[in-house]
Design the sequence.
C-alpha cells in the first residue's frame, strides 16, 4: 500500500505521432492528472518539452509500451479535450505556416500566453528549452518538433 501512495497518477491521452524513420504511430502519451504548472490535467506539450530524452508511448498496434527518443518525433497530433470557444485577452494569436523537412506545410495558429515584450513569432520559436511548439489547426492540435522545421512564414 505504501508503494501505491508514491505513484504519480497518470492518464492516457490518445495521439498520432510521426516518428523518423518509422512513420505514423497510433497510441497514447501518459499525462499527469494534475499539472504542476496550472489547474487541470497536464498537456501533451509539457510531456514533450521535458528534458528527458525519451517519452513513454502505449502503442495501439501492436499493443505495447515503447520508449521513443523525443528527438526522432517529428510531430504529434491530437484532439483537445475541451475546444477553446473563446481566446482570453492575455493570449497571443499568431497565424503561420510551418514548412517541414518532409515537404509538408502545416498551417494554423500559435495561441499562447507570452510575456510582454516577447510576443513575436520569432520569440516563440526561439523559446529556450522547448523543442516542441503547439500549432492549432482547423482539425486538430499539432505539437511540432522545431528541429524538423525548415522555415516559418507568418500569415497576416
Sequence:
Amino acid at each position: 500500500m505504501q508503494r501505491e501512495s508514491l505513484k504519480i497518477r497518470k492518464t492516457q491521452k490518445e495521439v498520432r505521432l510521426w516518428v523518423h524513420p518509422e512513420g505514423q504511430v497510433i497510441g497514447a502519451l501518459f499525462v499527469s492528472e494534475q499539472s504542476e504548472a496550472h489547474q487541470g490535467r497536464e498537456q501533451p506539450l509539457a510531456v514533450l518539452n521535458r528534458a528527458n530524452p525519451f517519452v513513454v508511448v502505449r502503442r495501439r498496434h501492436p499493443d505495447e509500451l515503447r520508449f521513443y527518443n523525443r528527438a526522432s518525433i517529428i510531430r504529434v497530433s491530437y484532439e483537445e479535450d475541451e475546444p477553446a470557444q473563446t481566446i482570453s485577452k492575455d493570449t497571443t494569436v499568431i497565424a503561420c505556416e510551418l514548412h517541414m523537412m518532409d515537404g509538408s506545410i502545416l498551417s494554423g495558429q500559435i495561441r499562447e500566453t507570452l510575456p510582454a515584450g516577447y510576443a513575436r513569432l520569432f520569440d516563440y520559436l526561439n523559446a529556450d528549452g522547448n523543442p516542441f511548439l503547439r500549432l492549432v489547426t482547423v482539425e486538430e492540435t499539432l505539437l511540432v518538433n522545431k528541429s524538423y522545421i525548415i522555415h516559418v512564414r507568418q500569415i497576416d
